[in-house]
Amino acid sequence: MHSDESVDYGKENISVTVRFRPMSEREIHRGDNAAWYVDGDIVRSEFNPSVAYTFDKVFGASATTRNVYDTVARNVVRGAMEGINGTVFAYGVTSSGKTHTMHGDQNYPGVIPQAIKDVFSIIQETPDREFLLRVSYLEIYNEVINDLLDPAGQNLRIREDAQGTYVEGVKEEVVLSPSHALSLIAAGEEHRHVGSNNFNLFSSRSHTIFTLTIESSLRAQGPDDEVTLSQLNLIDLAGSESSKTETTGLRRKEGSYINKSLLTLGTVIAKLSEGKASHIPYRDSKLTRLLQSSLSGNGRITLICTITPASSNMEETHNTLKFAQRAKRIEIYAAPNRIMDERSLIKKYQKEITKLKQELLLIKRGMTERPYATTNQEDLLTLRQQLEAGQLKMQSRLEEEEQAKAALMGRIHKLTKLILVSTKNNLSGSFPDAAHNRRHSFAESEERYDEQSDLDTSSFPPDRCTDSCSIDLGNGQEHFNICLQDIADQIDLTREQVKMLAGEIALRSSSLKRLSEQAANHPDDFQVQIGKLRDDIEDKKSQMQLLEQRITELGERSSYPEMSQAIEKLTSQLNEKAFELEIRTADNRVLEEQLQSKVTFWFLKASHQKIVLGPQTTNCLIEANDAGERLCAEKAIKTVVSHQENYPKKKETEDAEIEVVSQERSRLSEENNCLQMKNVKLEEEACYARDLAAAAATEIKDLTEQIKKLVFQNTRLSNEALSITCQGKTGRISVSSVDRRLMIPYAVQALKEELRSKREKQAYLEQTVSEKQALEKELKRKLDESKQREADLENDLASMWVLLAKMKTNDPPTSGPVQDVVEITECRPERNVSTAVAPISPQSVESAANIQKIKEQHQELERLRTSGSEDKETDDLKALLYDEDKHAHVCKVCFEAATAAVLLPCRHFCLCQPCAVACTECPLCRSSISDRIVTFAS
Ligand SMILES: Nc1ncnc2c1ncn2[C@@H]1O[C@H](COP(=O)(O)OP(=O)(O)OP(=O)(O)O)[C@@H](O)[C@H]1O
Predict the structure, then answer these.
(1) Ligand 1 atom nearest to CA at 197
(2) 194 lies in which domain range?
(3) Ligand 1 probe mutation, 100, 108, 235, 240, most atoms within 8 A of CB
(4) How many Å apart are CA 32 and CA 508, to the nearest integer?
(5) Does 93 carry a binding-site annotation?
(6) Distance (Å, rounded) from C-alpha 621 to C-alpha 723?
């Protein structure tokens, strides 16, 4: 490689551009203000008028990527096509718009797709040169280089040679059209590391470098002519992350690698901008190491700094602007590269094509200059021997040569297809060979590509029909367009076949004419051959017709089914032809054998009879047994001679046929491969479509749900509106009958809704009631407990009374077997708490002392009452006690004589014995009896 000396390219500065993006919704929502604004090609601070930076170009938020490309990147791309290395890269903080600028999207294609499109337009505009384009696509993720075109290419190493740094083992694909290159990028993007942070949902976590290697040479060049080789690097850097970027774990680790490499880039740029720095730390990061040859001044560089005007990012934007300012000072030297060494792939291909063509020529020549076409007819015996020995050899050699020829043709076809040439001003005059004219042309697809107002990057699925070096894209239109290219090739090929068939027919017609002349004397001998030839000619004609028909069909073809039908037809033709050829070869062999045996017979006979053969003696020296035999011998010799004369021609015809058939076979197998690949692609598409359909079904379901909800809401609202209208009309329904009819379903719906809400309310109330009941029960239980405690206290009080009475009565009762003890037990026998209590028996009541005691008790009760500590229970007890007249305790409920008193939960005493024993609930208040029974002594 050396610099161009004829043109003065001179020094240039890095072109530095700033692109504002509009404020994001997030920033607006947060209440951010614009901290920076565009003033021509100056970026100024809103807050500090003294802060201003001037650049080569500043694009405001409304500028499109096309503006950016046309202004700052096109020049680099054009230079790369002339052999000057070029680099375009986007720099900025996360979410500032780097990926938007470099890749873009369906509506706004970025710099990369536009550069690719431009490259192919330039090829189209340069008819005197031929180009070879290769692409590679790699990412630097966490300081590891990965090949995005080859998932197996991980952790690749950087090497250095005389031309600079390069990545060892990176995959390079030869590209044939814009869509081909874009499909490769789309495939590569699948493998790129992308993650989300709080600024950007799809934040690039790696730097990506898309490299287009361009080789070109003059079309009419000599073997030692120069080839220009250049590289166009299109770089989308990962965004620097500030402390505001909320990241954890893996994202933080990625962020630190990103920041480190960008810091190194900043240092390298700062040092380069100083101009006299001794050591530039390229090796401190993989990014700077890879960009070393570009940054060190070899080629053009455009730096697009993307920024946001948002005040929340003011500091980061300021840093970006400072970085850009420094970069502006770097000087570069843009000169085209010229190479003549082995690195030139285009040269290698061209050499190989020339060599292969020469080989092909030799083979062809060898086939036409075979030694069997001897004119020495003096020694037919030797000829026969040679014929026999050489026949087999020749047959196998022929086959080998055919195979070699087919392989060479295929290779030439492939290689020539890889080299791109313009279809404009086709220099066919200087390249008369068919192979050259069949070089791959992307013009047709390119024109269609131009027709699109914008590039559709999403429509380039990574699928290619590599066998035929044409591209099979998933997108229907593109796919169809590429097929058209194939069809054009097929038409060319079919036309060639038609020409060949026409030649064959002409050959057979002349043979037929000759045989017909010979058959004039002996029609029987040549009848079969003549018939065969006629059939052959007919067949060839019909084949020709079919091929012509196919050309018409190909011209009209617009869909796959027709294509496959035509292929089927051609395949069947090919089979038929192969079959016929086999039959004819077999017939020829039989014919040859017959002729040879005849010749041998007549030679032997002639030599026996001393007949000297020779053209001058043939007519007079034959002495056969009879005239007929002599004539036969003579004829046989003539036939042999004529056969020997015709044999090379026949062979030639057969060779031509074999060639055609093998050509057709290889073409059909290519087509078949192509179709198989297309089938695979269609299957993939079908699979994708199925997935889409499933996703769509889910979405539709969701939407239906939403619609239902909305309808319901609508109904409610209508209902409310109706009721409001009704209210507005002071209770009288003001809607028309039609409206009413329309409203009925809504009203029913609303009533249902109301009913439902009432039911809900009812359920709620019921629940509240039951909760309240539970609470009541609990309170009751507590009340019972407190009652129990109270009763205990009462009991204690009663005991106290007894004790008191005892203490007051000094003389205990002396006479009568009076059981004066009343046992107070608990209602539940198991508790069985017995306490000694006061003697309140009828007998004791009868006694004066006891009456006195009772009176005292009464007094005590009176005292208690006046002190406020008396309650209902004591009242009852008092009533009981004062029922002195009867001396019998009668139940106030059942009026039976009572032997026991039961303290009821309602605080009454029940004096019914049966009740006391049997009743489990209070006859008065109906609550369960769990209280004491006061048993009277009988
Ligand atoms: N000039 C622009 N016009 C409109 N939208 C833009 C522009 N630039 C960026 N955006 C939008 O801003 C968002 C972030 O942009 P982008 O992903 O390109 O940022 P980035 O700098 O590549 O971020 P990161 O470094 O995190 O990958 C995207 O939604 C993008 O569509």
Answers:
(1) 26
(2) 12-340
(3) 100
(4) 89
(5) yes
(6) 134
Q: In terms of C-beta density within 10 A (0-12 exposed, 13-18 middle, 19 or more buried), how is residue 497 classed?
A: buried
Does the residue 139 lie in any domain?
yes
Locus of tokens 């999403």:
458
> How many distinct structural domains can be found in the chain?
1
**DSSP class per residue in 773-797:** HHHHHHHHHHHHHHHHHHHHHHHHH
pLDDT in tens, 652-698: 777 787 788 778 778 888 888 888 887 777 777 777 777 777 777 77
State in Å: Cα 140 to ligand 1 middle: 20
Note whether residue 523 is domain-resident: no
pLDDT tens-digit profile of 299-320? Answer: 889 999 999 999 988 988 999 9
Distances 755 to 718, 724, 744, 758, 889 between C-alpha atoms, Å: 18, 19, 16, 5, 61
How much is the average pLDDT of 323-327? 89
Ligand 1 midpoint to CA 307 (Å):
10
Lining ligand 1 with CB less than 6 A are 21-22, 24, 92, 94-100, 200, 202-204, 238-239, 306
Binned at pLDDT 50, 70 and 90, residue 872 comes out as: low
Residue 648 has pLDDT above 80, yes or no: no
Specify if 622 maps to a domain: no
Burial class (CB in 10 A: 0-12, 13-18, 19+), 446: buried
Check residues 884 and 85 and name the one with the higher pLDDT.
85
As a whole number of angstroms, the distance between CA 605 and CA 15 comes to 98
- 528 within 8 A of 641, measured Cβ to Cβ: no
Residue from 883, 890, 929 nearest 906 by CA? 929
Q: If you take atom 16 of ligand 1, which residue's CA is the nearest one?
A: 97
- β-pair partners for 57: 17
- The set of residues, in sequence order, having a beta carbon less than 8 Å from that of 390 and lying 6+ positions away, is 371, 372
471 Cβ partners below 8 Å, 6+ apart?
Answer: 176, 177, 179, 180, 183, 463, 464, 465, 482
pLDDT tens digits, one per residue of 379-394: 566 666 666 666 667 6
Per DSSP, the three-state class of 165 is strand
Distance set, CA 742 to CA 189, 623, 716, 725, 738 (Å): 56, 123, 14, 15, 6
Answer yes or no: is 617 a known binding residue. Answer: no
Name which residue sits closest to atom 3 of ligand 1, judged by CA. Answer: 21
Q: From the CB of residue 494, how many other CB atoms can be counted at a distance below 10 Å?
A: 22
Residue 795: inside a domain: no
Of residues 20 and 566, which shows the higher confidence score?
A: 20
Candidate from 181-195, 502-516, 806-820 with smallest mean pLDDT: 806-820
Crossing angle of helices 560-608/380-418, nearest 10°? 160
Q: Comparing C-alpha atoms, which of 210, 198, 211 is closest to residue 93?
A: 198
- Structure confidence at residue 111 as a pLDDT band (50, 70, 90): very high
Question: Where does 310-442 show beta strands of DSSP type E?
Answer: 331-333, 337-339
Share the mean pLDDT of the chain.
Answer: 70
For residue 437, give Cα distances in angstroms to 132, 422, 428, 447, 448.
16, 11, 7, 19, 22
Distance (Å) from CA 250 to ligand 1 centroid: 22
Task: Give pLDDT tens digits for 387-436.
Answer: 666 666 766 666 776 676 676 666 666 666 666 766 554 433 333 333 33
For position 871, what pLDDT does the model report?
Answer: 57
Q: Would you say 142 and 257 are in contact if contact means Cβ atoms under 8 Å apart?
A: yes
pLDDT at 21 over 90: yes
- Nearest by Cα to 641 from 860, 287, 255, 380: 380
CATH number reported for the structural domain that contains residue 201 in this entry: 3.40.850.10
Highest averaged pLDDT of the listed ranges 197-201, 286-290, 732-736: 286-290
With tokens 């539940």, the residue in question is: 828
What number is the average pLDDT over the span 857-884? 57
Residue 61: both structure tokens together: 């938020």
Cα 178 to the center of its chain, rounded Å: 21
